[in-house]
Specification:
single chain, mainly beta, six-stranded antiparallel sheet, two-stranded antiparallel sheet, elongated
């Protein structure tokens, strides 16, 4: 999956600014599932495990990686770039429930060697 965002900011008395960002994401299902994209709706549908968690099976396990970059250096903003790299594990218990565990690495090169790492845990219904 890829994303591209462009934003125009109207800043009276400071000059207009524009910000661009992009992200690239890949994932792989260890249990053989896939993501289904709905072209009419314009989004990915819920993952349906081959065997739901419980008596039937273990659900679906998905490994994911994402790289994103936001450019804040254009026009008069000049706040530097923001780079992020995320590695994640998603456990889809059934089509309605997902556990996510992500490790996010963030870097602002304009701040020198400033790097930040955080771990996120999320439960989605």
């Amino acid at each position: 999956m890829t994303e591209l965002s462009l934003a125009q900011i109207n800043r009276p008395n400071q000059g207009d600014a524009s910000i661009s960002a992009y992200a690239v994401e890949v994932s792989y299902f260890l249990t053989g599932e896939s993501k289904n994209y709905s072209q009419t709706a314009g989004f990915f549908k819920r993952v349906k495990p081959k065997k739901n968690f419980g008596k039937e099976g273990c659900g679906a396990f998905e490994l994911a990686a994402r790289y994103g970059k936001t450019d804040w250096t254009q026009n008069s903003v000049n706040a530097g770039d923001l780079n992020t790299m995320t590695f994640g594990l998603n456990w889809h218990l059934n089509p309605q429930t997902r556990f996510s565990l992500n490790q996010v690495f963030t870097e602002r090169p304009s701040l020198g060697a400033a790097r930040y790492t955080n771990v996120e845990f999320q439960l989605t219904f």
